[in-house]
Amino acid sequence: MTTVARPERPLGDLLREWRRTRGMSQLDLSIEAGVSARHLSFVETGRSRPSPDLILRLAEQLDIPLAERNTMLLAAGYAPAYPSHQLADPELAPLRAAVRQILDGHGPYPAVLVDRQWHLVEANPAVALFTAGVDPRLLVPPVNVLRLTLHPGGLAPRIVNLSQWRGHLLGRLRQQVLATDDAALSALLQELRGYPGGDDVAAPEDDTLSRVVIPLRYRHGDRDLSFVSTTTLFGTPLDVTVSGLAVEAFFPADPVTTATLHALGSSATGVT
């Protein structure tokens, strides 16, 4: 289990920063958390030391990520409330089994498991469709899935609707930075913005599918494949590691893509 050092910044500073990030006044937060505005003011200025329950209640109202809730507790001199296991730890064996079942069961369609900073944790064999031909340096662990996708040496040259897909991914990452205040994600966003491929905003395309969802259109050989994607999070996580995990799964959006993926899957397994 990961241990966390006590932060240098006091609880009041952390709480004030998160409150302002969420666009809430002291009065707004006090009402939502069921505490007096006077007491909340004392907490932010360091004149009052709140209980662990109050810290967690305030963090819940501010929708603060679990890791940062632990940081707030440590800043106030309390023990972390949420464990942070490694995926290889025995405690997470049921989760690993569930993820493996999801990834394997999704074949022959691509699916990956990523952490909250978009590092590749696991993938099913169908992901080879995307990684074939990319710069090997982008596949050296830890592999960042967003960098792999938008880097000129990655998937980008084969993404037919690169401007649209790039805008979609940057929009998701931008929202994640706002929600988590994660410095590593902020740095990643700035890096990805420097890659060529279009504007930061997803450009609309005039076709039936694009009016419903933003598809990924990917060139494979002489065929343009079309995918829709889904994101699966783990419900009610109480572990820091688990709270940041997501399964990104791709489904074929047309008969050509379906037939191609099944043919590739059969070829990989030796089935005729």
Automatic annotation (TrEMBL):
Alphabetical list of Pfam families matching this protein: HTH_31, MLTR_LBD
Source superkingdom: Bacteria
CDD domains in UniProt: HTH_XRE (cd00093)
InterPro entries per the UniProt record, alphabetical: Cro/C1-type_HTH (IPR001387), Lambda_DNA-bd_dom_sf (IPR010982), MLTR_LBD (IPR041413)
Domain (HTH cro/C1-type): residue spans on this chain: 15-69
Protein's recorded name: Helix-turn-helix domain-containing protein
